[in-house]
Amino acid sequence: MISYEIVDVFTDRAFAGNPLAVVFGAETLTDAGMQAIAAEFNLSETAFVLPTTQDGATYRVRIFTPLRELPYAGHPSVGTAVTLARRGDIGHGAAIQECGVGLLPITVMEDEATLTGGEPSCGGPVDTAALLAAAGLADSDLTGPARFAGTGLEFPYLPVTDEAVTRAVSHPREDVPEVCLFAFDAATRVSHSRLFAPGHGVAEDPATGSAALGLGVYLVAEGLMPDDGTHSYVVEQGAERGRPSRLHCEVTAKDGAATEVRVRGRVVPVARGEFVALP
């Protein structure tokens, strides 16, 4: 039997945060079958729990948007880990998730999990014209340089005013599959973020753990977070979608570059069921 659960991630209440479908018993599904199921759910991502293939892994997960598979993503990782622990499939405490970028450490508590992202990466400044156009914004909204950054999955980060984050509207472009726009308050270390990802079949994501992780890499590179030691920051996302989310992050830096980034969030169960038809 192939079953599923729906959970809301990066929130402490149902019908907020980012919804996730976690599918169990998917060993017999083909790649095309998993993609068809993800398209049927039509959520930002759907996670498929599978037997491990690498030594040291606690469980394996494959993650699909409505249009394609991702090497990993934050809210599916956090949501899957907490759901597995709640079902008794894994224990609380330290675990290792096997996914498309390899083995990622994750610590599971009763209703929350902390994911450590992959190896941090950060590119040089990029042209902002296409990114601004994809968000319906102008040069006057910018507050710093745009650049790609990530921890196994890179995003283009576009720093703009807080008012511009709220005002932005997605304008899909073939040359901009996704854009993460944000306004960071250095005094409180809180980021007001939005992510448009039309190239993945996601008009706007309510909470993006992998983008929250990459943001820490960007912030260190731009001198907006200390260049040594471990420091926390918070990402607030999803309010414009009516699904407020809160992502608690930590970035460890050395000599002006991020060396490790973690994201923590709570998970709320919403629904469960089983498939009566399969692709």
UniProtKB/TrEMBL annotation:
<dbReference type="Pfam" id="PF02567">
    <property type="entry name" value="PhzC-PhzF"/>
</dbReference>
<protein>
    <submittedName>
        <fullName>Phenazine biosynthesis protein PhzF family</fullName>
    </submittedName>
</protein>
<feature type="active site">
    <location>
        <position position="45"/>
    </location>
</feature>
<dbReference type="InterPro" id="IPR003719">
    <property type="entry name" value="Phenazine_PhzF-like"/>
</dbReference>
<dbReference type="GO" id="GO:0016853">
    <property type="term" value="F:isomerase activity"/>
</dbReference>
<dbReference type="GO" id="GO:0005737">
    <property type="term" value="C:cytoplasm"/>
</dbReference>
